[in-house]
Amino acid sequence: MKNKTFKAGDIFAIQIEQSSNYYFGRILFDVQQQYKNSTETSNYLDWHSNSVLIETYKHIANEPKIDKYDVAIDAVFIPKKELLKQSITVIGNVPVNPTKVSFPETLKNVENTCFFTVGELAIKTNLSTAYAYDSIKVFPTSGKMYYIQLATLDFSGRRDLIVDKQDIMDNYFRFSDLRSLPEKRAEIYQSIGEDPNISYYDLALKYGFDLGRFYK
To answer: Degrees (nearest 5) of the Cα angle 177, 179, 185?
Structure first.
């Protein structure tokens, strides 16, 4: 990729390893470029400062063109340097609607207190740090492009394009996103007194954070 910068809304095509086919994704949030002037230190965005939030699609094609945007992976962080190592091409831009953006949901222990962390938010739970480490085990994690490709192909019904089929998993995000663990997630939301069906945008607004300010 000649232009080594991204912006929110960029649609990209990545050539699948050992294949002439492509899969596709979009930049939802660039932490370094968009997350500024914040005083919140307990969330995970500083940890992800060199990453972008992306989604991928179920559209697989033999040329870098896309006209269907059914989501395969909904919001995962990937370091920019990992993304730029791929055979990647930006093919367009679809503006991001901040009310529709979601973020990985994790836990974070700060001074022996367990917080639920998502996007800008760090909400104190009533869970012990020992329980968080021993039973739930979901903490901020950087994505790996190999597994993003693997999960995208799997979720798209294209296992035929997966070379090492022994790498296929039942849960690709077991240790990085509570959204992949519905029962544990419900437990966390109960501990913070919130509705698990609330959107990230509305939840953030309740705590005084408007994600829309980063897209102006």
So the answer is: 105
Evaluated on CA atoms 52, 58, 59, 61, the torsion sign reads positive
What DSSP designation does 61 have?
B
Distance, CA of 30 to CA of 208 (rounded, Å): 21
Q: How far is residue 15's CA from residue 24's CA, in Å, rounded to a whole number?
A: 9
Q: How far is CA 29 from CA 79, 128, 133, 136, in A?
A: 12, 31, 28, 27
- Cβ atoms of residues 123 and 116 within 8 Å: yes
DSSP letter, residue 155: H
In eight-state DSSP terms, residue 126 is S
Within 111-153, strands assigned E span 113-118, 121-124
Per-position pLDDT tens, the chain of length 216: 544 678 999 999 999 988 999 999 999 999 999 997 566 668 999 899 999 999 999 999 999 999 999 999 999 999 999 999 998 999 999 999 999 999 999 999 988 899 999 999 999 999 999 999 899 999 998 889 999 999 999 999 999 999 999 999 999 999 999 999 999 999 999 999 999 999 999 999 999 999 999 998
The verdict on pTM exceeding 0.85 is yes
Distance of CA 52 to the CA centre of its chain: 8
d(CA 177, CA 13): 24
Q: Give residue 109's Cα distance to chain centre.
A: 20
Q: In what order do the strands lie in the sheet with 22-30?
A: 71-79, 51-57, 22-30, 10-15, 88-93
